[in-house]
Amino acid sequence: MKTQILKNKEVVTMMEFLYFPEDKTKYIPAVLSLLIFAIGAVVTMYLIHKSSKKEEKRFNDQYEIQKDTERNS
Q1: Which site in 37, 45, 54, 70 is 20 to 30 Å from 27, CA atoms measured?
Q2: Helices and strands of the chain, counted as H and E runs
């Protein structure tokens, strides 16, 4: 555990896992990778939604054809 001493008082910091660099340019790769993955997630969800709509239309068309043939019989 890290400790800091301020004017003869011991302050214990419990957040050793947090890292905030002084040089803010170190955030650039993290932000870029976050944007890439977020954009990828949005594109993936769009493609899944589009595919789902096509499959739903195909199912409804097929079901209507079967339903019509059963009525005519």
Answers
A1: 45
A2: 1, 2
d(CA 58, CA 65): 11
Non-local (6+) Cβ contacts of 69 within 8 A are none
For residues 59 and 51, the answer to whether their CB atoms sit within 8 Å is no
Token pair 């790769």 is at which residue?
29
pLDDT (tens digit, 9 = 90+) per residue, 25-73? Answer: 999 999 999 999 999 999 999 999 999 999 999 999 888 877 777 777 6
Name the phi and psi angles at 71, rounded to 5: -70, -40
